[in-house]
Write a structure and sequence with these properties.
The protein contains ten helices and nine strands. It is of the alpha/beta class and about 350 residues long. The radius of gyration is 26 Å and the shape is globular.
């Protein structure tokens, strides 16, 4: 974004001051700078952005009917424009409205899997203690081919409702939805310098205390949001585990070759070890004492190709190889397989 003349003036004065120079301002310049800091911008473009972005997502994937679930209640809902859809609200609080489903989005087994064509939340997930559990449940209750859209603060003042737990980066958002295909994930910063003083019911210093109170430069002035949109594929779990298996294969070949085995022996050993490694939804590996044919589908040829074609665009050795090796090196099956190579 290009700097305005006022921005350039402020930066010039800042640099001059930091380098020991004298700075002087006439009254007009001082008033301009004061107004730029103290003006109260209304985030009028934020809600239309969310509504239009979500609508364009539905249109792109040809979702023009069905059921949409919004996490939270109807009070600040974003679904008023989606009248041709059946809409539901997943809320912790019961309400006399047939659209309400009472449930904790991080643990709602009473909501059937593959129920909703779309799931949306705006400024809600930061208040969910088990945010990864929520992402897993959202993925579960979403239909294959369905879309999900979430807006979460990346930088915002502390606000309970009733509890404020999280600020989330784009990397974290993508990592939270391993079973989905990311459509897009980005930082929204058009409200960045807004003089955010909260509201009458939720003032900027209401929950965080005096250190958040409005001062001579206004209220909170780093307002960023992380926006995530994802699509649920038909075979998300299978693809997710294949991805982790491929990464583990490259890591193990690298580690074994670092420890002195030639590539042929490293690939053979990796093929056998992978039969004992499975993964959960948080990407943590599970070590199995007995080989499990469902744990890995990779054979010698597959692993060899993964190694030969490794790159940053496909799979490349990660630092996790050292941790994985420390976990398996004392297992009986590792010792048995290494003895076969002697």
């Amino acid at each position: 974004m290009p700097f305005s003349e006022l921005d350039k003036k402020i930066l010039s004065l800042k640099n001059k001051y930091e380098n020991g120079g004298d700075i002087s301002l006439n009254i007009d310049e001082l008033l301009k700078i004061s107004k730029s800091f103290l003006q109260l911008e209304k985030p009028s473009h934020f809600k239309p952005f969310i509504e239009n972005h979500f609508l364009s997502l539905l249109q792109k994937y040809k979702i023009d009917s069905g059921c949409i679930a919004e996490i939270g209640g109807h009070k600040n809902s974003f679904l008023h424009r989606f009248v041709k859809f059946d809409t539901k609200f997943i809320s912790l609080f019961p309400f006399k409205d047939e659209r309400y489903i009472v449930g904790d989005i991080s643990n709602c087994p009473h909501i059937e899997s593959n129920t909703f064509d779309a799931v949306i939340s705006v400024s809600v997930l930061e208040h969910v203690k088990d945010i990864r559990g929520a992402a897993n449940e959202i993925s579960r209750i979403l239909k294959p081919g369905g879309v999900t859209f979430h807006v979460v603060p990346f930088s915002y003042f502390f606000h309970g409702a009733p509890v404020d737990y999280w600020r989330v980066t784009t990397s974290a958002m993508e990592d939270m939805f391993p079973l989905l295909d990311t459509e897009e994930c980005f930082f929204y910063s058009k409200n960045r310098r807004r003089n955010n003083i909260g509201s009458n019911t939720n003032p900027v210093d209401g929950d965080g205390g005096a250190q958040f109170q409005v001062d001579a430069l206004g209220g909170w002035r780093e307002n960023w949001f992380t926006v995530y949109t994802g699509i649920k594929p038909e075979n998300g779990l299978k693809r997710f585990k294949e991805k982790l298996q491929n990464q583990a294969a490259v890591d193990l070949v690298k580690k074994f070759s670092e420890d002195g085995l030639d590539i042929n022996a490293s690939v053979h050993l990796t093929e056998n070890i992978l039969k004992h490694i499975d993964f959960d939804l948080t990407s943590k590996f599970i070590i199995l004492d007995m080989p499990n044919k469902n744990a890995s589908t990779l054979n010698f040829h597959n692993i060899w190709n993964l190694w030969v074609n490794r790159s940053k665009k496909t799979y490349s050795p990660s630092v996790q190889r050292h941790n994985l090796f420390e976990v398996i090196k004392h297992k009986h099956f590792y010792k048995a397989y290494t003895n076969l190579l002697k």
